[in-house]
Amino acid sequence: MGYLAEEYVVGEMLQIYQEVPDDGVLQVLDQLVQLAATSLKNPDILKVWDNAAMNALLAQGRTIAKIDGRLNTMKDLYPKLTSQIDKMLAKTNLIFGDFKRFMDLRKSTSDRQVLCHGDMWTPNVLWQRNVNGSVDLAAILDWQLLNVGSPTEDLVYFLHSALSPETYPKKKNDYLHYYYDNLKQSVTNLPMPWSNLENFIQQYEVSYTYCIMVLMPWYTTAKEQLLGTYINNPSFVDAFDEKIKFMTNETIRCINKWF
C-alpha cells in the first residue's frame, strides 16, 4: 500500500512577468544552497537516486525536430525577433543534435552532481507578502522532477523567471556570487562543483543557453495560459513581451560567448 502526504499551504504565486523582491530571491537561493550542500556532504544519497524518469523526459523533449519546430513557431508569433531566433536555430544541432552529447554538456556544467529540484521556476514558489511589500518564502512546490544533476539548471530556472529584464543584467552576477559564497561556507573543506566563481558563472551561462532555448518558445505558445486573466491587461502583456525579448537577446549573448 502506498501513501500520499499532502499539506495545504496558503501563499501568493508570482508569474514570470512579475518580479520577485530581492529578499525573496535570497530566501530561495538559501534553500538551493541547502539542497546542494546536503548532496555534497552526503554523496551516498545520490547513488540510490534513479534518474530514469527525468532522462526519458529529456530524451522525448530535446529533439531537433521539436526544438526547431518551436523556434520556428516563435518566429511567427514574434517576427521582430526573427534574426535572433535564426541564430539560435543555427546552434540547435550543435547543442541538441546528439542526445549523449547534450547530456554530457549538462553534466559538464558542474564537476559534482547534486540533487536538483528540476522545475524551479517562480510559479512553483509560494510567498507570504508582508505589509511593507517584502515577502517570506512559504513553500517550494512540485518536486516530482527531483533529479541528480547540475545546480546551475535550478538557478537558471529560478533567476530567469524571478527577475525583470531591467534587474537581471544588473543583479544576476550578484545573486550568483551570493549562492557561490554561501555554498562554499556550507561545505567548508569539501571540493566545490566549480573551480572558482568565474567558472561557476560561465557554467551558469552555458546552462542558460540550452535551458532557455527550450523554455522560451514554449512560453510564447503558452502566452494566454500564462497570462490568464491578465491577457487583457496591456501592462502585463507588455511585461511578458519584454521578458521574451530580453530572454532572446540574453540567449544570443551567451551563445556568442560560449558556443
TrEMBL record:
<dbReference type="InterPro" id="IPR011009">
    <property type="entry name" value="Kinase-like_dom_sf"/>
</dbReference>
<dbReference type="InterPro" id="IPR052961">
    <property type="entry name" value="Oxido-Kinase-like_Enzymes"/>
</dbReference>
<dbReference type="Pfam" id="PF07914">
    <property type="entry name" value="DUF1679"/>
</dbReference>
<dbReference type="InterPro" id="IPR015897">
    <property type="entry name" value="CHK_kinase-like"/>
</dbReference>
<feature type="domain" description="CHK kinase-like">
    <location>
        <begin position="3"/>
        <end position="189"/>
    </location>
</feature>
<dbReference type="InterPro" id="IPR012877">
    <property type="entry name" value="Dhs-27"/>
</dbReference>
<protein>
    <recommendedName>
        <fullName>CHK kinase-like domain-containing protein</fullName>
    </recommendedName>
</protein>
